[in-house]
Amino acid sequence: MMKNEKTIPLTEEEIARLSELEGVLEYKFKKKKLLQNALVHSSYANELRTKQISAESNERLEFLGDSVLSLATSEYLYREFGAKHGEGELSRIRASVVCESSLHEFAKTLKLGEFLYLGKGEETTQGRERKSILADAFEAVLGAIYLDSGLSAAKKYLQRFITPIIEDIKKSGKTRDYKTLLQQIVQRTPGEILEYTLVDESGPAHERVFEVHVLLNNNVIGRGKSKTKRAAEQAAAKMGLVWFGE
Q: Which residue from 77, 163, 165, 214 has the fewest beta carbons nearer than 10 Å?
């Protein structure tokens, strides 16, 4: 980017908006432009280019954040699980922890959708709630933190999200990806519709309990409760497997 190119200005209003997000992230950026960049969706960047304003989308930061996410989660799992858990099992656990659904939930917890820069098209089609956009934004913010303060800061930020899921797996011993197994069974019959529904959320903010039902063609085949939505879905899927006789 050339020095004389116009970029998204960091006005007092923008700084205040980013500072509000920093409070939610529990991380203060030394370079606020990094955080701003992490929130720029490609649709917004493309619109600005038509006005001769240079605005890089968050795609490169997302790419970087994805690598940081994989490394940090892998290291955490290596330390937390003993040698009895082999490479294949650790890979399955990692996949369940950092899947798009989990990242989407992390982003929703941070209310990232409210802070995104979206183009008019995405704005009118509820892009602020789209799972893929929010999951990508979470990774982009992680990448921005890594560039701003290094790997230790990125791991510290990420730990608050992945620790509850991993601790739940350790306590319950549920290291299998029951959701994937259930999906594979359902897919054997074309036209079957499998979905997960959050039916209850209770307890204080630091001790939430989620109840999830798994439905096959609108019929409940499994129920699950846990401290994370992801773990509750796994518990419901496990009951669904029992329903199928697995």
A: 163
